[in-house]
Amino acid sequence: MSTEETTTDTYRDLYVSPEKIYPRQINGIFARLRIYTVILLLGCYYITPWLTWNGQQAVLFDLPARQFSTILALLFWPQDFIYLTLLLIIAAVGLFLFTTIAGRVWCGYACPQTVWTETFLWLEELVEGNRNKRIKLDKSPWNANKIIRKSLKQFLWVSFSLFTGYTFVGYFSPIQELGTGIINFSLGPWEWFWVFLYSLATYGNAGWLREQVCLHMCPYARFQSSMFDKDTLIISYDTKRGESRGKRQKNSDYQLQGLGDCIDCNQCVQVCPTGIDIRDGLQYECIACAACIDVCDNVMDKMGYDKGLIKYTTEVEEKSGGKEKTHFFRPRTIYYISIFVFVVGAFFYLISNRIPLKIDIIRDRNALYTETFSGDIENIYTLKILNMSQINQTYHLSVEGFKDILLKGKNTFVIDSGEVLTLPVRLRIPAEQLKKRSNNIRFIIQATEGEQFRAQSTGKFLGPKK
User: Between 206 and which of 11, 115, 120, 314 could a Cys-Cys bridge form, CB atoms 3.0 to 4.6 Å apart?
Assistant: First the structure.
């Protein structure tokens, strides 16, 4: 074969369309666990925007108002960015921890791509039938039956995708008002844009791309190996027990024929959502959904063989033939657990001690200080006071730091929820009480109702050199 022909064949292999995968639905403990997880996660996603608290939407990322309310009756602002940072750190460390212990359990059960792909597959099976019927339908010529089934499937997919996009935008815009706006075609351009964009992403990723997202677009599969070690749970085929594989009668003495327990039924490949053969060894395409374990155990039951030809195991157990046990507590897991517990503890500590009130002090830069006719020293400040609570509050301002300190300006005021009050104040202190040029003072803001609404901030009071 010439070099030109070889190059042509190589390009043809690179650009060939991937063969469509028809995952077979299977019953088993892991399949049921996956179904329960999908129902739970989808339920949380679709129900949460409809929850109310004190007559308002409980969870709402109100971007125009730059606030985020939660079901815990807390109101967060851009100034509370530290809490979002801690949540992201908790999610990242949690992912590293669970991956180190249980491999790609996130991919197999909780990843949004997996959750929505499972849902779309259920809708497809509902309309087109099981795996064999779907294959037969795709290969059949276009007729009334095929057009009706394909059209109905697309209608369900599109409807579900649109509802998903609507729910997504409902986290950022009040969902009931959003629904009214859709019915009346009165939404703003950005709301329409995000509804359709998220719907299109759901429809494309879960309906058409499916496993291609996991195989070629998701970076997690590429760096997961850095979190694996010999004690990480993986799905593995027992080569010693299964080989040589081959067909046989149920009650035949297959061992005399030189065969292992694998009957080469290929069902482990048919149920795999990414289309791999687990018998070829651990592969990065494996998302650890354990569908191959369920179907293989079912086959072993029918044949009268022991279960576990394909199973969750670890490298240390696999290589030692079960003589060595998996170590859960090892340096890597201890390290991740320590960080995880620390960050979670810090998050809840900060939340429990959060004060929904913030004060910023800005000194007048035009004059360091002013000396009055009576000999007092005066400094001018501008206070920025933010009410981060969900109710309007009346506050009282006081200043500490010196025995005789006079506050000139308004010291009792009302701040609406989410509003920032700009308050100019003047402080006077007798010159003889100032022992140095720069002196610490403390501004204290206290709500007239609610002891938890109290904040303080330290500032500088400047005077003449001594």
Answer: 120
User: pTM for the complete prediction?
Assistant: 0.84
For the chain, give the longest Cα–Cα distance: 114
Look at residue 374 in the predicted model and tell me its pLDDT.
Answer: 87
Length of the chain: 466
Contact 393, 415 (CB under 8 A): yes
288 and 103 Cβ atoms separated by less than 8 Å: yes
The pLDDT score that the predictor gives to residue 354 is: 87
Exposed, middle or buried by CB within 10 Å (0-12, 13-18, 19+), for 240?
exposed
Q: Is 357-462 in CATH node 2.60.40.10?
A: yes
Contacts of 182 (CB under 8 A, 6+ apart): 166, 195
Q: How much is the pLDDT for 421?
A: 93
CA dihedral 347, 348, 351, 352 (to 10 degrees): -150
Q: What is the pLDDT of residues 241-259, one digit of tens each?
A: 999 999 999 888 999 999 9
* pLDDT given for residue 407 in this prediction: 93
How far is 461 from 399, CA to CA, in rounded Å? 11
The closest alpha carbon to 389, from 421, 419, 428, belongs to: 419
pLDDT per residue as tens digits for the range 365-412: 888 899 998 889 999 999 999 988 878 899 999 999 998 999 998 899
Buried b (16+ CB within 10 A) or exposed e, 280-311: eebeeebbbbbbbbbbbbebbeebebeeebbb
For the purposes of burial, counting CB atoms within 10 Å of the CB of 120, is it exposed (0-12), middle (13-18) or buried (19 or more)? buried
Three-class SS of 245-310: CCCCCCCCCHHHHCCCCCCCCCHHHHCCCCCCCHHHCCCCCCCCCCHHHHHHHHHHHHHCCCCCCE
The full set of domain ranges for the chain reads: 13-50+103-225, 229-323, 357-462
The stretches in the chain having pLDDT less than 70 are 1-17, 71-73, 450-452, 466
| Encoded tokens for 280 | 């070829």
